[in-house]
Amino acid sequence: MNSAEIEMKLADVVGASFNQEEFIFKFMEVFDPPKATLTKLKNGARENPQPGSDLLWPRKLYFRVAETGQTAKVIDTLKFEDIPKNKAPRFVMATDGEEFSLFDKKLDEIRHCDFNKLNEHFDFFLPLAGIERYSGTEEKSADVKAVGRLAKLHDEILRVNPDWDSPESNHALNQFITRTLFCLFAEDTGSFEKDLFVKTVTEFGGEDGEHVQTLLSRMFQVMNTPQTERNDTPRHLRAFPYVNGGLFAEETEVPAFSRRARQLLLDSAALDWREISPDIFGSMMQAVADPKMRGELGQHYTSESNIMKVLRPLFLLSLEEDYAAAQGHQEELSLLKKLLNRIHNIRVFDPACGSGNFLIVAYRKLRELEIRILKRERSLDESAFTLRPSGVPLSHFYGIEIEDFAAETAKLSLWIAEYQMNQQFNSEFGEDLPDFPLKEGGHIHTGNALRVDWLEVCPPMNTAERNRETYLVGNPPYMGSTRQSKAQKEDLSRVFSPLTKRFKNLDYVAAWYMKGAEYCASDQAECAFVATNSICQGDSVGLLWPLMFDCGIEISFAHQSFKWTNGAKTKNAGVTCVIAGLRQQGNKTKRLFKGEACRQIDHIGPYLIEMPNIIVHKAAKPLNGLPEMEYGNKPTDGGNLILSPQEKTQLLEQYPQAAPLIRRLYGSQELIKGIERYCLWIKDKDLPLAQSISPVAKRIEKVREMRLASKKSATNDLAKVSYKFEFISDTNAEHTIIIPSVSSENRPYTPTGLITDGGIIINSAFAIYDAEPHLFAIIASTTHLSWIKAVCGKLETRLR
Fold first, then answer.
1. What distance in Å separates the CA atoms of residue 355 and residue 359, rounded to the nearest whole number?
2. Is residue 619 assigned to a domain?
3. Which residues, at least 6 apart from 391, have a Cβ–Cβ distance to it below 8 Å?
C-alpha cells in the first residue's frame, strides 16, 4: 500500500456521514490490519482502559468519540492514560464528527483538523501502514517543534481573521505573535508565576476562544503598566509583572480567536520554551510569516561557525588576546578592568539583521567574556571583589531589517538571549538579576537599509565617547545583476549613482560594502560582511574597490572563498562566499584566512590575496597585438540542431547526402571529458539540400517553433533563419585553440585544446581562430593559471 492509496481511502471514510459505532473500524481498514485483530475488536474485545466508546488497537492507536467541541480536551486526557507498556499505542485520536484532534507520541506532534479534511493529514498516519515518517535531527529540536506549532496558530488566526492577511495588518499580527512568544518563554523560565499564562487563558478565555481576544489585549496592557498604576486591573491579571522595555508599549490590536486557535495556543504553551536557542529559533520564526519557507525549517539561519568567521577576526580575537596578555601580568587586575571597560564600550550594528543572529551571537560572546573576566578578578582577590551588574546592555546592539516580522523577532530574540545570559551570570555568582522590568532593548529599525542613513540608526560617537568601538557585521542579501528586481536596481542606483555611472553589473551585496566603507570613514568604525565572492573577482573589483579605497579604508582581514553551509539538512552548496573586514587606513597587521589556516601579513589587496591595492581594469582590446579570444557559437535551438553519435550515424545511413551539413561539435565538456557530439551546420547555399532531407527539415521546423515561443523579441526574429545558430563566430579557420569557459580550480594547468578538423566550437567554450601555435603554450601554462586564479571571475570556486 502506498501513501496515495492511503490518502484516497481516508477521503472515502471521512466523505461518508459520521457513525460513531462504525467509524473507527472503517478507519482501521484503510491500513489493512490483520482480519483477526479487526474481528476481535469489532466483537467487543477492545481492551479499553475506560468503558464507553474507547477503542485500543494495541501498540497502534487509542481512539475515543468526544462530545461536541471537546476533542482537544479528550486528547489531553488520553495522552496520559495508564496503559501497559506492551500495549501502549503510538497514536491518540479523538473526534466529535466535526473535527479531529490527533497526537503522535513518538514525535511529540499534535494536530487538529476538520472531520472532512482528515485525508489531508494522511502522512501523520503512515506508520500504521508500516511507512515510518522521516524526522531528521533538526526536526527533533525544540526550535523546529515550536515554529511548527506557531505556524499552525498563525494560519488559524488568518483563517478566523481574513482581513488581517494584508500589508496593513502585518505589523499588528507580527507584534501579537512576538508578544505571545515572550509570554510562553517567560512562563517556562520562571519569570512569570508557574503556569500563569496558560492558566489564565484556560480559565478566562472561554472554551470556544470567544474571550481570548479581549483577555490578551487587556493582559498586554497590564504588562505595560507599573504596579503602582493598576488600581482598576482585574484580580486574575494582577500577577502579570510590569515588563517594560518597549515590548508592550505600542497599542496594537489582538486578533479574534476560534476554539481551534485557542487550542493551538495552548498546544504551543505545552512545549518547554527554556530549550529555545534564540539565534536559530529567531531565523526559523520567519517561516511562520512566510508559508513558502515552511518546508525549509532550519535552513534559513546563519550558523554560529559562519557568524564567528566575521565576529572573531573583527573584534573578538583582539579581546581574547588582551585577556590572554593580562594573565600572570603584574598589573593583571588593572588590565582586566581596562579590558572590561573596553567590552562595555562596544557597539555592534547589523544593517541586514534579519531575525538578529549576528547580534545575538555577538551579545552572548561579549557576556561570556565578561563573566570570565569577573571570575578571574574574584579569584585574584576575593576579599576586594565587588560584583557589578552586567555592563553589556542590549541598547548597544543596533540593526536594520526590511521585514517587519523579522525585526520584531530580532527584538524578542535579544531579550531571550539576555535572560539566558543573566541565568548563566546568576549560576556563576549566585546573584539573581531581576527579570523585570526589562531594560532598554536592542535598537532594531524596520526599513530598507540601502535607503536609510546608517548614522541615524547607529549615531556616530561624540567627544565624550572617544573610547567607544563600533563594529558593523552581517550577512546581507546577494543577487547578481541579471537577477535583480527593479527595486533592487533602484537601491543600487541610490548608493552608487552619486559616485559613478558604472555600477549596474555589481552584485546587490556591493551596496552594503559601499555604505559600510562610508560609515567607517565617518565614525572610525570597522565592518565585515559575508558576501558572494564575485565582489573580489573580475570586473567587479575595478568597479567597486576604488570607490571604497577613496574613503580612506583598508582591508583588515579576509576569508578567501569558502563554500557556504549552515549546518541544516540541506546545504546551500551553490553559494561561494568571502568575508572582507574594512577599517580606516593604518599600520596594524592584517589577517588572511584560507580555510582554517591564518597568516598575519602587512597588506591584503582587493582580490583578497597578499598584495598592494593594485587593480586590473577591464580592457576592450588585448595587449601587445595578441589575437582576440571569442565566444563560441551559440545555438539557441532547443537542442534540435545537436546530434549524438548515434543520431549522426542513423541520419547518414538513411541520407548519405546529408554529410556536408554535419560538423563535429566542441564545448567545455567535449574537450575536458572527451564527449563526442555533432551539429547540423547549414549555410545559406545548403538550405535547399537541408529542406529536402525530411529529418533535417523537421529539426529546422522545431527550432522555428521554439524561437517563436520565446518571450524575447530578438529570439522571435531568429525564427526566420531557424537553420542557423543564433550567434556565429569564425568557422573557416584552419586550426582553432579552444578554452573551456569553466573548469576545475584543482588542475595544475588551464585545459586547452587544438581543433584542426573544422569542428564547431559552441558557447560553453572560447575560441582563438588561426592563432600562432606558441599561444597554446602560454594559455595552458601555470603562469596563466595563476593570473586567472588571482584576478578573473569564477563560478563558485571554479575557473571561468
1. 9
2. no
3. 340, 343, 344, 370
- Examine the domain organization and report whether 114 and 176 are in the same domain: no
Q: Are residues 394 and 501 in the same domain?
A: yes
C-alpha cell at 496: 552608487
Do residue 72 and residue 210 come from a single domain?
A: no
Q: Cell 552619486 sits at which residue?
A: 498
Give the distance from CA 63 to its chain's centroid.
40
Domain identity same for 203 and 183: yes
Tell me if 757 is assigned to some domain: yes
Low pLDDT (below 70) residues in the chain = 1-4, 45-52, 133-145, 244-245, 279-301, 432-438, 463-465, 565-574, 730-731, 743-746, 790, 792-800
Q: Compute CA distances 705 → 16, 211, 448, 485, 636, whole Å.
A: 50, 63, 44, 30, 12
Q: Answer yes or no: do 493 and 409 share one domain.
A: yes
Residue type, 114: D
- Same domain? For 325 and 426 the reply is yes
**Distance between CA 285 and CA 279 in Å, rounded?**
10
| Residue pair 392/321 in contact by the 8 Å Cβ criterion | no
3-state secondary structure of 97: coil
Domain containing residue 52: 3-135
Q: Is residue 432 part of a domain?
A: yes
Cβ–Cβ under 8 Å, residues 349 and 473? yes
Are 167 and 97 members of one domain? Answer: no
Long-range contacts at 392-395 (CB < 8 A, ≥ 24 apart): 392/343, 392/344, 392/346, 392/363, 392/366, 392/367, 393/439, 393/440, 394/363, 394/418, 394/439, 394/440, 394/441, 394/442, 395/439, 395/440, 395/441, 395/442, 395/443
639 found inside a domain: yes
Yes or no: say if 55 and 46 are a contact pair by the CB < 8 Å rule.
Answer: yes
Query: 485-512 burial, b for 16+ CB within 10 Å, e for fewer?
Result: eeebeebbeebbeeeeeebeebbbbbbb
Q: What are residue 528's phi and psi, to 5 degrees?
A: -160, 125
Identify whether the C-beta of residue 578 lies closer than 8 Å to the C-beta of residue 608: yes
643-685 tens-digit pLDDT: 999 999 999 999 999 999 999 999 988 888 899 999 999 999 9
Determine contact, residues 593/312, Cβ cutoff 8 Å: no
Helix (H, G, I), strand (E, B) or coil at 663: strand
